[in-house]
Each structure stands twice: as structure tokens, then as C-alpha cells.
Amino acid sequence: MEHELVGLAGPGGRWRPVAAGPFALLAVALALLPIRPVWLWAALIGVVAAVPWMLGAAPEARRRRPRPFWRLSAAGLERIGPDGLSMVSYERSRIDALAITTGDGVLTVFHRFGRTAVGGMTAMGLEPLAVFVTARRLGFPMHVLDGESTDLLDPALDEALRIPGLDDDLPGGSALPRDHAAEKRLLDQEAALLAAAHEPALQASLEPPGEPVIEGRRTRGGNKAGTRGRTNGQRLDTPEPLPSRRRIALLGALIALLGAVMIVRIAVDGTGEFGARLAAGCWTLAAIAGVLAARRRLLRAVQVRWTITAERLLVRALPGRRREAQNLPAGDVAAVVVGPGLRLDPVSGEPRRADLAALAFGHRLELVARLPAHGLDGFQLAHALDDHGYRVITPGARAPRRPEYGLEGLPEIFAQVPGGRLVVADGGLGWADAAGDVVLKMPEDRIGGIELLTIAGHAWVRLYDTDGDEFFAAPLSALRISRTDLRDSARRAGLPVNDAEYDAYLSAAFHSAVSTLAVPEPGTEPEPEPATAALPSQSAGKEGTAPQPDRADDNDFTISVSAPPSPATAPGALLDATRRSRVGTYGMSVLLCEAVALLGAVWLGPELGGFNATASWSVPAGLVIGLVGYWLYDRNRSQLRVSSAGLAVVTRRGKVEWDLARERIGGVGIDEARERMPRLVVWGPSGRVLRQVTFPPDLDELRRACERYGVPWGPPDADRPAPPPPEL
After folding, report:
1. H helices, E strands: number in the chain
2. Of 182, 163, 181, 186, which Cα lies nearest the Cα of 173?
3. Per-residue model confidence as pLDDT tens digits over 380-408
4. Is the Cα dihedral 399, 403, 409, 415 positive or negative?
């Protein structure tokens, strides 16, 4: 059918153990029985433990039968079974309206005999937006109701809410009001889909032919990269599973092998005592549980990979067969909705909620594909799709992320003096009234430093005492003084002023201006650094003087301009890992080594003279190994350098792990991921994650360093970009 919505359903059968739990209990029971001879006892245990896997490998068990799924089409709402026949059907002519309750997410069918709760949207494998758009395209009245389906189906509640005299003549109405906010959000997304579906695709025709460029770099022609529709393909991957699939499989195989070896050893030593058979039963249970846990972990350790180009979207779950990769041409996609959705549970194959998913809609508002995106960064995915020409729709506009600062330390006299302003007078700072009289004075000996910086696009001032502690912070707009006036007046008065952004701006402007005056020597290629600028003689322009010298003599007075410092060498703030994290890592390293030492003493103690004798030397050895091993790592730990030139991670021995220039940085801050631990990342101007800082520095010091050297703190705000720094 042209307009239909098929619910998310897993593939058919796969290789899996059949009745692993009962056979595991049977194997443990056999291990406890005194069966003679012992080789038969061991063989029965192994065969019974392997029966579930042999049954799962049978062709009949692995036959791929499709799972039941729900379908919404012009014929109505129906559930299709594995054989292709309809199991449950709600015909189109019998449906008066469809409703989604926001409390429990249940799809309810309204008909002339009442209301019927079909089931939860997640269990049915249907997304609210897809159901809403498809139902309206098919002509079904669609509602979004506030509450739960049980409230709608409770006749006692309907009777209690009925008002005599007002609704006697009305047909049976809804007992609860509609959730206007949820319905408005769905209507807004539908309107955006309509606009995307009917928007003329003129982008490709308007793009001039040219050499493809890579974002963040420049081509030989000088055109800046990042032009929409001309960027190369980009690949987004979810983090690799930890531990890796190879290690998980190896660990499961080792557990199974260890269990088999121990059972054989117990059989060789004899099973006459009940303690030996009990130990064999425990090893059997441990081996089977370890293999099943490893299989379960392998199923969940899947990496999602997106390859985004202007021509197609290639989404693949690794590891997987190549035919299972979703290859979606860009011409079939009108818009991509990025937000919460559904995904298949890797173990059970049933639909489950996902924090992030992508729904691709076609030009007829049909659902073209469901693209898995769990584990990816939603901000990064949305910007990557938008940069390659795809229309991206999100459930709602993000709230602007703004830093929150208060006016701590503002004296009460500031508000009591009408028309007051900050002035530089008598070698210090003061607060003057409207007439210009200074009513509050801060002497020079109290001021240890004046720092000018930009916060959220506004100029701020921070005052430090002689001990280096901050005691005052306020925006200059509240103090009624401009940044330039305060900086120049304080420097004329001899006060210590630090305006790193302004100094970096002057340095960059001077370098760019002087580098254009470079004159290469004859017969040599011009070198970019250091640049040499020639200054003409002052007497050359006067009348009545000697003739002008040759060109070779014009280069007597030169100015050597050194290369601009790199992010790793530029003066700035060097941030180290916090003392608390270092001490905690030391403790974890020692505890891990001690745990290994104790386990080794328990495991190998009987062969090495007993537990006490083995632990007497393994525990001190574990302590020494933990301390020395982490000391070797800590003595060359990484540190973060923040400067006006950019960011760099350097080791204590001077090795540069990575660096980013200032123009490539869009923000620095904490990435609050739901499925992962919060991490410190560096974003690009488009919102893409460029680098990840593996060690946790002090966040307050990092924020102050970013503000001091002009590095934006926090992720780029696509909804409301911050204005440029004032007066620069």
C-alpha cells in the first residue's frame, strides 16, 4: 500500500540455546549423583550441558520466521502473524478515532460501542509521531489525551465526572482533557515534515561545481571548508564496547574450558565423596553461567556506525552481515527526525525505548526507515546531518545553555548611590556619584589584580586581593564603565590589569598586518616564518636629497616577525588532574593489584605451600607493583594547556598528544551523556565532538582559564549563538 506504517519487529529465528536453564539444572543434578564409572559421569555432564546449543543449531530451530508486527494502513489497524495472516484486526469502517494517552503511552481505539486499549506504543513497535502523521494522512481522527488508558476505560470515573444538565445531550465524551502541549508538539513536527516534503530541492542545482573540500580546512583556491552540500562524507561511531567482543568471547571460552578441566580433574581424583561431587556441580554451574553471560554480553556489545554523505545514509550495526546495513539514498529522504525513539533489544528481539533514534520520512510523509542511533551524541548527529544537506527535525527547541553568574560581592552602596559608576582615581578604584564625587574608594594596596574578560558576550571585571583571592566580580554594564576606559585608565594609573583577549587580538592583528609586508630575497622562495618587512628610508621621500638607493639597499632596516606560538607553547594556564582523582586512582591501582594477589593466593596456594605462605609474599608484591606501576604512569601524566592560541594536551615530559587552534574550537565543557559517564570534551563550531580529555581537571579552574584566554565555555548554542566579545 502507498500509505501504511509497519511497526518495528525483530528478525526471525537465530542460533540460541534452547531451554538452557532446565538443562543446566539437570547437569548440576547429574554432577551430584554417584554414577559409576567416572568417565560416564563426566560424559553425561558434558553432553547435557551441550544439548541446548546443539538444539539451537538445528535447522528447524534456526528457521527464520518473521515475528508478529502491527500495521496501520487504509484497511485499518491490524497485527500480522508469522504466517502473514491477520491475528488482530480493527477495520477502518469501525474506527471512529485513535488516541494516544500520555500517561502510559497506550494506543486507544474509539468505536461506536466504546473504547478499546490496543496496547502500549513501545510494545507495538510504533512511534507517536509516525502514528500521528500516518493516521492523519489516512483520514483517521487522531487525539492526544492526558492521563492513562485505565482512566478512560473506567465507567465509574466517567459517571463521577458527568455533570447533570450539561452533558446529557452530548455523546459519550472523553473523561480527561487533552494534553495540548503534546498534541501541539506533534502538530509542529507534522508541519515541519510538510514543509520539508514540499520544499523544492534546488540546493544541488544552485551549488557551483568545484573541488570538494574537507570541513575545518582550506583548499588551494582559498575557499573555506564547511559549505553545505559540498563536504565529504562523515562517519559517526558509537564508542567501542568495553571490554571488546574478542575479550568477552575469550573470557567465556576460558570459563568453559576451566570448568571442563576441573570436572575432569575431579573425575580423575575420584567422586566417592559428596564434597568432590558438590565441587563438580559448582564448577558445572559456573561454566554454564559464564558461557551464557558471555553470549548475552556479546549480543549487547554492538557498535552503531553512521556514514553520512550528500548522496546517501549508510547505517550499520557492527558486528553484522553486510546485507543488514541500511543504505538510504538522499533523494528518498525529505526529513530526518532525531529524538527519542525505539530500538530492538539485542537479547529478546522486542522493541525497547531508546534515548536517541532517527526516523527518515519520505516526500509523501511515509516512514522510509528507522535508523538506530543509540549511543551516539544527538547534538553531533543532528549537526552532521544538517551539514550534509538533510532537513533535521527535533522534538523541541533546546533551552539555551547560558552560564549562570551572580553579582557576589557588590557593596550595598552601589545601589544606594543613584547614577553611580566605577572610576579610577588617586591610584585606585572608586565609586563616583552622578556629580563625579568619589563616595567609596578602594586603595591601590588592596588591589592585587584586575582581570577583564567576556562572559556570555558581556564584558566583566574581576578584582583580586594581594593574596590572589577573588573578592569582587560584576559586569561592566552594571558598573557603568566601558572596557576600554577601565583598561586604559587603570594602566595609566599603574594598576595591574590583565585583558588577555584584547592582547591576543592586538597580537593577531599585528601579525596579520606585518606578514603582508614580507619581501622575499631574490632567487629564493618566500618562507612563511619568520616574515621580513622592509621599511623605506625616511630621507628617500624628501626633496633635494640624494638619489634613492637600489632595491638591495632598501632592506637595511627590517622587522623580524616570529611565528605565532602554537597551542602547546603559547603562554597560558596549565591544568593538571585534581589531587582527589590522582589519589583515588592510586588507591584503585593498589586495590586491584591486591585483589589479584589474594585471588592468586587462594587459587594457587595449595600448589605453592598453602594460602598463608603464598599470601605472605604475594600481598606485599601486589602493593609494590600497584604503587610503582602507577608512579611510572603518573610521572608522565597528561596536562591540559589553555591559552589564547587554543588547547593542547601535553605530558610532563613535553610530548604533545593533541592540540587544537583557537579558530577550530566551538566550546569546552562537560558532555552529560545518559548512557555513558559524563566526560570533558571539546566541540567544534558546528557542535561536533573534536577531542575528549581523558583526565578530569578542576572544572572551576578550567572555566576561569577558558574565560581568561577567550576560549568559549560550554557547548556551542545553535539556537542562540553568543555575540562576539565586546570592544574587540
Report:
1. 18, 32
2. 163
3. 898 889 888 899 998 765 544 444 444 44
4. negative
Strands 572-575, 303-308: pairing is unpaired
Cα–Cα nearest to 440, from 465, 416, 475: 416
Q: How far apart are CA 180 and CA 178, in angstroms?
A: 6
Cα(590)–Cα(677) distance, integer angstroms: 23
> Which tens digit of pLDDT belongs to each residue from 362-383?
988 899 999 999 888 888 898 8
Query: Nearest to residue 133, comparing CAs of 335, 327, 387?
Result: 335
Q: Which amino acid is located at 4 in the chain?
A: E
- CA atoms of 382 and 390, how far apart (whole Å): 9
Residue 529, C-alpha cell as written in the block: 616564518
Is-contact 586 627, C-beta < 8 A?
yes
Alpha carbons within 13 angstroms on the beta-carbon side of residue 427 total 4
Per DSSP, the residues of 473-527 read EEEHHHHT--HHHHHHHHHHTT--EE-HHHHHHHHHHHHHHHHTTB-PPTTSPPP
First to last CA, the chain: 61
Cα 351–Cα 356–Cα 358 angle in degrees, nearest 5 = 85
Instruction: Locate all alpha helices (DSSP H) within 198-244, ordered by sequence.
Output: 203-206
Q: Tell me the one-letter amino acid at 419.
A: G
How large is the average pLDDT for residues 48-71?
78
In 10 A of CB 252, how many CB atoms?
20
Dist. CA 338–CA 346, nearest whole Å = 21
Measured CA to CA in angstroms, residue 556 lies from 222, 240, 539 at distances of 33, 61, 14
Of 478, 462, 561, nearest to 518 (Cα)?
A: 561
34 in Cβ contact with 87 (< 8 Å): no
Alpha carbon of 562 to those of 228, 526, 587: distances in Å?
36, 15, 47
The DSSP symbol for 9 reads -
Give the SS3 label for residue 382: helix
- Sequence-ordered alpha helix ranges (H) in 605-693: 611-634
Strands 142-145 and 97-101, by their bridges, are: parallel
Select from 199, 279, 233 the least CA-distant residue to 31: 279
Q: Tens of pLDDT along 658-692?
A: 888 888 888 888 776 555 566 788 887 766 778 88
Query: Please, which residues have CB within 8 angstroms of residue 713's CB and are 6 or more apart in sequence?
Result: 403, 667, 668, 669, 702, 703, 706, 707
Enter the C-alpha cell of residue 616: 605472605
251 by Cβ neighbours in 10 Å (0-12 / 13-18 / 19+) ranks as middle
CB distance 120 to 128 below 8 Å: no
Q: Is 426 helix (H, G, I), strand (E, B) or coil?
A: coil
In this prediction, residue 529 has a pLDDT band, given cuts at 50, 70 and 90, of very low
Tell me the C-alpha distance between 707 and 456, whole Å.
10
Give the count of beta carbons closer than 10 Å to the beta carbon of residue 430.
18
